[in-house]
Amino acid sequence: MERTSLVTTSYISKVFGTGDTEMVALSGLDLDVHHGEFLSLLGPSGCGKSTALNIMGGLLTPSAGEISFDGRPLTEPSRDIGMMFQQAVMFPWRTTLQNVLLPVEVFGENKKEYIPKARELLGMVGIDEFENSYPWQLSGGMQQRAALCRVLLSDPKLLLLDEPFGALDEFTRESMNQELLRLQAYSGSTAVLVTHNINEAVFMSDRVAVMSARPGRLVGILDVPFDRPRTPDLQTTPEFVQLVAEARRMLELA
Ligand SMILES: Nc1ncnc2c1ncn2[C@@H]1O[C@H](COP(=O)(O)OP(=O)(O)OP(=O)(O)O)[C@@H](O)[C@H]1O
């Protein structure tokens, strides 16, 4: 894998509020996200993972430090950065296909040109039969599948995933994670996943960035050497269990 960086955060901090309400959410986060890798941000609840991700998406400005994306300072959201959150934002009056095509419409591009790709992506996640259904006719997992198709439609260089399947049951979550890995490999995009699930972080990632409790700072980076594609039985191997234990130790020592 190429080791050049798509995202570089140089000692970024984020402070919310002022005076008595001032709260340091992130403290001096120094992190490189390499081209093509799958990196997880792992840390306890409230340690600033989402804040870091929102800064990488250009949605928040750091209070101190610098962030660059694709060799340039990042100051605003970019079409090359796709974001996905725990709740799929699906417009109830639009069909699945229309929801997937929404960003293309918003950016004033020719929707028709993107229809074959949208259908291909819907087929890859197994919901092509539902392209004319409305969100209320889909399960939560199907809605997140559609949201994944939407974010991949414009081939973002960077995928930012904030616990995208956190609201789903364990079984659906596992199969969605598999879909995500398959589609990330297919699209060749770089991915950053926020999670507080150690197992999930190790299973999904090439590297796990372990963060301390608030104010979040980087405790260390764990390399995950397992081959891809990965299958769920990897999680029962001694090597996997050992890496999970190591990540847990890093979290406990933080
Ligand atoms: N817009 C905001 N205004 C004020 N405080 C905020 C804001 N966004 C986040 N915070 C605070 O910053 C801290 C870090 O929040 P953040 O959501 O980044 O953590 P997290 O690690 O993603 O948490 P979780 O895993 O529970 O989602 C929290 O204490 C949160 O309350």
From TrEMBL:
- Can you say what this protein is called? ABC transporter ATP-binding protein
**How far does the signal peptide extend, from start to end residue?**
none
Q: Where is the ABC transporter domain?
A: 7-238
> Could you confirm whether the keyword Transport appears in this record?
yes
**Mind telling me which PANTHER family this protein's record contains?**
ALIPHATIC SULFONATES IMPORT ATP-BINDING PROTEIN SSUB, TAURINE IMPORT ATP-BINDING PROTEIN-RELATED
Organism (species): Aquipuribacter nitratireducens
Keyword annotations: ATP-binding, Nucleotide-binding, Transport
The keyword ATP-binding is annotated on this UniProt entry: yes
From the record, what ranges are coiled-coil? none
PROSITE patterns assigned: ABC_TRANSPORTER_1, ABC_TRANSPORTER_2
Q: Which CDD domains match?
A: ABC_NrtD_SsuB_transporters
Short name of any one Pfam family annotated for the protein: ABC_tran
- GO molecular function, a single term: ATP binding
Superkingdom is Bacteria
